[in-house]
Write a structure and sequence with these properties.
The complex is a heterodimer. Helices cover 43% and strands 11% of the residues of chain A. Chain A is α/β, with parallel strands linked by helices. Chain A has a single domain, classed as Thiamin diphosphate (ThDP)-binding fold, Pyr/PP domains (Rossmann fold). In chain A, strands 2-1-3-4-8-7 form a 6-stranded parallel β-sheet, with helices on both faces. By secondary structure, chain B is of the alpha/beta class. Chain B contains 14 helices and 14 strands. The chains are: A alpha/beta, B alpha/beta. The complex binds thiamine diphosphate (TPP) and magnesium ion.
Chain lengths: 322, 352
C-alpha cells in the first residue's frame, strides 16, 4: 500500500480513536444518558472497509457502530449531539448511540439487536439491484451475530441472488463477557459456513488496516462486477468494557495478559510505525494531526452541548410516515 | 426480626432452591454465568451446580428456545433468561406456535414445563429496542401463563411456582425492581400463579397495577391521601390467568377504577382490565374507568422525551382525581424532587 493511502487510513483511524476516547472521558459527566459501545481497538476494520466505498454505497451496523459511522463519512457533530440526546442529533435524539444514521453518506442505520441489520443490508443491495443501480451494501456485525439464524438466512438469499453485499464480521472473541468457547464449536470454521452457502470468504488480521483494505477492496470489486456477496472475518479485540467508558479486565472474564497482548497490536500504532519506518510520518506531523482532530472534536462537543433538546411535541412525531 | 432481601437476590434464591430441589431444573441464557450474572440474579449458581445445569448459550434466542422446549418434553424443567424482553422476540415463533400449543394440539399427551424470564429495561437511554414491555403479546395467547411480580417476596414465591408449573410461564421482571428490598422468607415457598393481592385498602377508587406500576400506584395513593382520597391498590401479580374475582370485588366496592400498565394503551393489559370491569360490574360504576399507560409511540432515547413518556405517581393521581372530580392539593400535586427521572435511584450512574 502506498504511503499516501496508508496516511489517510491512519488519520481516519486516529480520528475514530480520539473521538471514542473523548466520549469515554466525557461520559462521567452523565450528560450522555444512553448506553455506549466503544470500538477502541477495532478501528482498522471500519476504516479499511469503508475506504473502499463511495457515499453511494450503503453501510449498516449494530450496537458498536461509532467507528463504522465515522469511517463512512458520518457527520461527527450530529453523532455527538445524538449521544447527548439533542434535537440536532442525527436521529433527533430519538435513537442515541445505538441508532446512528447519516443518509447523506449512505450510512443507512444502526440497531443493537444482534444480527438484525444483516438482512436489512442484503435488502438494501437487493433493492438497489432491482432499481438497476450498482451499489455495494456492507453489513458490519460481531462474531456473536453469526450464531443467529438470521445471519445464515441472509447469506443464503444474498448468494442465491448474487447480491452486491459484503458481510463484515468483526471477531473480537467475546460477546459481552462470554468467550467463543461457550457459544461456538471449537473446530468449526466460519469460512466453511460461507462456502457452504456459496458465499466467497476471506479471513484476515483486523488490526492491520492494509490487510483489511485489500480484502475489502477485492470484496467490493467482486460485488460491483456482479460476482455476488463476500464474507470477511476480521480478527480484532475490544479494549474497553462491552458497554460503557471503562476497562473491565478486572472482572475476570478475560486476562490482563490477553488484553496486553492485543494492546501491543494496536491498529493505530501499527499504521503509525509503518509510516514512520517509511519516513512518511514524523513527530511534528503526528502532533499536527492530533491538534486538528482535537479541535474538530472540541467543536463537535460544543455543538452537542449547546444544542437544544427536542420539544415535548416531538414525542408523538414520526410514529407513522406522513 | 423479618428477613430482608433485594428483588434480584430473591430471584437468585428461588433459582438456587429450584436447582437444589429438582435435578430436572436447569438454567440457560446469554450471560447467565458471567461476572454480572443477569443483574445479580444468577450469580454463584454455576459455581454451585456446574456448567451442565447453569449455562451460557450462543446468541441464538430462537433456536435455543426450541432446544429448551424439546428438553422439557422429555423430562427437563428449563429456566431460560433474556436480558431484555426485546431479545426474546427472536423466539416468538417457538414460544407462541410451539411452547404454548404442544400440550393442547397433541391432546394433552405432552407438557412443556418451561420458564422464560424476560427483563423490561427502562431509563438511561434504553430507547426503542431495549425497553419494551410486551406482556400483552404473551398474555394474548392461550397456553401461556404470564407473571409480573412487584415485590421481592412475590418474585421468589412466583418464580418457584412457575418452575413447578407444568405449563410454559413467561416471567417478566422490571429492571427498576431489581434493587428494591423487602421481606423474603427462607426456604421454598410458593405464591400461587393467578392470585392477585390487595396491596393497600381504600374506599374511593381501585387502582389495578402490576410489576413496577404497583410502586408508582403506592406513591400515587400517598398523593391522593393528602386530598382526602383513599385508593385501594390491587397488584395482579399474574397477568394471565387473571384473578378477575379479586379485581371485580374491589371495583364493586369502590365504584371507580384506574388501570395501569408498563406498556402501551392500545390492545394492552389495562384495556383488558377495563373491558372486564365494563362487562361484569358496569352497574356498580360511579364513573367510567380510566387507563394510565404509555403514549402511543416507541420509547425515545433522549431523556428530554423519555421523561415525558412514562406515567408516574402524579399522572396516576391526576387520573384518579379526574374520576373523583376533586381538585388537586396544590402543595403535593407535583413532587419536585430535583432528581433525574431516567434512573430508578441515585446510585445508578449508567450505562446499565
Ligand atoms: C438478539 C440479541 N440478543 C442479545 C443481545 C444483547 N447483546 C448486546 S451486544 C451483545 C454482544 C454481541 O457480541 P458480538 O456480536 O460479538 O459483538 P461485540 O459486542 O463483540 O462487538 C449482546 C449479546 C442483543 N442486543 N440482541
Ligand atoms: Mg464479539
Amino acid at each position: 500500500m502506498n504511503a499516501e493511502t496508508l496516511g489517510e487510513l491512519f488519520y481516519a483511524m486516529l480520528r475514530i480513536r480520539l473521538v471514542e476516547e473523548r466520549i469515554a472521558e466525557l461520559y462521567a459527566e452523565q450528560e450522555m444518558r444512553c448506553p455506549v459501545h466503544l470500538c477502541i481497538g477495532q478501528e482498522a476494520v471500519a476504516v479499511g472497509v469503508c475506504a473502499n466505498l463511495s457515499p453511494d454505497d450503503y453501510v449498516l451496523s449494530g450496537h458498536r457502530s461509532h467507528g463504522h459511522y465515522l469511517a463512512k463519512g458520518g457527520n461527527l457533530k450530529t453523532m455527538l449531539a445524538e449521544l447527548y440526546g439533542k434535537v440536532t442529533g442525527c436521529a433527533q435524539g430519538k435513537g442515541g448511540s445505538m441508532h446512528l444514521v447519516d443518509l447523506a453518506v449512505g450510512f443507512l442505520g444502526a440497531a443493537p439487536i444482534v444480527g438484525s441489520t444483516i438482512p436489512i443490508a442484503v435488502g438494501a443491495a437487493f433493492g438497489s439491484a432491482l432499481r438497476g443501480e450498482r451499489r455495494v451494501a456492507v453489513a458490519f456485525f460481531g462474531e456473536g451475530a453469526t450464531e443467529e439464524g438470521i445471519f445464515h438466512e441472509s447469506l443464503n438469499f444474498a448468494a442465491m441472488k448474487k447480491l452486491p453485499v459484503v458481510f463484515v464480521c468483526e471477531n473480537n472473541l467475546y460477546s459481552v463477557y462470554s468467550p467463543l468457547s461457550v457459544r461456538q464449536p471449537a473446530e468449526r470454521d466460519l469460512m466453511a459456513i460461507a462456502a457452504g452457502h456459496g458465499v466467497a470468504a476471506e479471513r484476515g488480521d483486523g488490526n492491520d488496516v492494509a490487510v483489511v483494505y485489500a480484502l475489502a477492496g477485492e470484496a467490493a470489486a467482486r460485488a460491483r462486477q456482479g460476482g455476488g456477496p463476500t464474507l470477511l472475518e476480521l480478527t480484532t479485540y475490544r479494549w474497553r468494557e462491552h458497554c460503557g467508558p471503562l476497562y473491565d479486565n478486572d472482572l475476570g472474564y478475560r486476562s490482563e495478559a490477553e488484553f496486553e497482548g492485543w494492546r501491543q497490536r494496536c491498529p493505530v500504532a501499527h499504521a503509525e510505525r509503518t509510516l514512520g519506518a517509511r519516513g512518511a510520518l514524523d513527530e511534528a506531523e503526528i502532533a499536527r494531526m492530533h491538534a486538528a482532530i482535537a479541535a474538530e472534536i472540541d467543536d463537535a462537543v460544543a455543538f452537542a452541548k449547546t444544542s437544544p433538546f427536542p420539544k415535548p411535541s416531538a414525542l408523538l412525531e414520526h410514529v407513522y410516515a406522513q | 426480626m423479618t428477613r430482608e432481601l433485594g428483588f434480584a437476590q430473591a430471584i437468585n434464591e428461588a433459582l438456587d432452591l429450584c436447582l437444589a430441589n429438582d435435578p430436572a431444573v436447569y438454567v440457560v441464557g446469554l450471560g447467565v454465568p458471567d461476572p454480572k450474572g443477569i443483574f445479580g440474579t444468577t450469580l454463584g449458581l454455576q459455581q454451585k451446580y456446574g456448567s451442565d445445569r447453569v449455562m451460557d448459550m450462543p446468541t441464538s434466542e430462537g433456536g435455543m428456545t426450541g432446544v429448551a422446549i424439546g428438553s422439557a418434553l422429555v423430562g427437563m424443567r428449563p429456566i431460560m433468561t433474556h436480558q431484555r424482553v426485546d431479545f426474546a422476540l427472536l423466539a416468538i415463533e417457538q414460544i407462541v406456535n410451539q411452547a404454548a400449543k404442544w400440550h393442547y394440539m397433541f391432546g394433552g399427551k405432552m407438557r412443556v414445563p418451561l420458564v422464560i424470564r424476560m427483563i423490561v429495561g427502562r431509563g438511561w437511554g434504553q430507547g426503542p429496542q431495549h425497553s419494551q414491555s410486551l406482556q400483552a403479546w404473551f398474555a394474548h395467547v392461550p397456553g401461556l401463563k404470564v407473571v409480573m411480580p412487584a415485590t421481592p417476596y412475590d418474585a421468589k414465591g412466583l418464580l418457584i411456582a412457575s418452575v413447578e408449573d407444568d405449563s410454559p410461564v413467561i416471567f417478566i421482571e422490571h429492571r427498576w425492581l431489581h434493587n428494591i428490598v423487602g421481606h423474603v422468607p427462607e426456604g421454598l415457598y410458593r405464591v400461587p400463579i393467578g392470585e392477585a393481592r390487595v396491596v393497600r385498602e381504600g374506599r374511593d377508587l381501585t387502582i389495578v397495577a402490576m410489576s413496577y406500576m404497583t410502586l408508582e400506584a403506592l406513591r400515587a395513593a400517598e398523593l391522593l391521601r393528602a386530598d382526602g382520597v383513599e385508593a385501594e391498590i390491587v397488584d395482579v401479580r399474574t397477568v394471565r390467568p387473571l384473578d378477575e374475582a379479586l379485581i371485580l370485588a374491589s371495583v364493586r366496592k369502590t365504584g371507580r377504577a384506574v388501570a395501569l400498565d408498563t406498556s402501551w394503551k392500545t390492545a394492552g393489559f389495562a384495556a383488558e382490565i377495563v373491558a372486564r370491569i365494563a362487562e361484569e360490574v358496569f352497574a356498580d360504576l360511579k364513573a367510567p374507568p380510566r387507563r394510565a399507560a404509555l403514549p402511543e409511540c416507541p420509547t425515545p432515547t433522549t431523556p428530554a422525551l423519555a421523561n415525558r413518556y412514562y406515567p408516574r405517581a402524579a399522572d396516576i393521581a391526576a387520573a384518579a382525581r379526574e374520576l373523583l372530580g376533586v381538585a388537586p392539593d396544590g402543595a403535593l400535586a407535583v413532587p419536585a424532587t430535583g432528581l433525574p427521572l431516567d434512573v430508578p435511584d441515585p446510585s445508578f450512574t449508567g450505562p446499565f
